[in-house]
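Reopening this one. Same input as before:
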Amino acid sequence: MSRCRFYPNNLGGVVPGVGQCDETEDILPNGYCILHEESFLKNESDNEKTRKEKEEKVRKNVFDKLSQCISTNKPFNCICYYLPELDLRMRTFVVPVNFIYTFFLGYVNFSEDGGSIILTASIASSKGFGGGSVYSATKAAIR
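Same output, byte for byte:
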């Protein structure tokens, strides 16, 4: 059975203790899963129906992984995921949820009015990283 070839050590070891992506379903021809392949959601030749189906498939995958982490009481690490528009307002997170180098390709609503997002320390909003402009801009916008 093939497995997603994404490995966080490709990031220079920024995620210690986290191994290779465990995704074995939805592996694309290039060896990456639908969560780690940017072009899966950004294919300009897709029609509207195909684009919406792909977005829904990614959402289902993310929410299934989150449910699995909750049931096993483990942190949910979204590392280098490419995510479509998400509505997380009605979700109760009883485990840590970490978006590490995650690229949001649409609007994401994290909390109801009065909720909060805890931004952990990062220099990404003030220091440029090659290929990380969207990530850096997101960090700067939250600050």
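So the earlier flakiness isn't reproducible anymore. For the record, Helices lie at 38-41, 48-72, 133-142.
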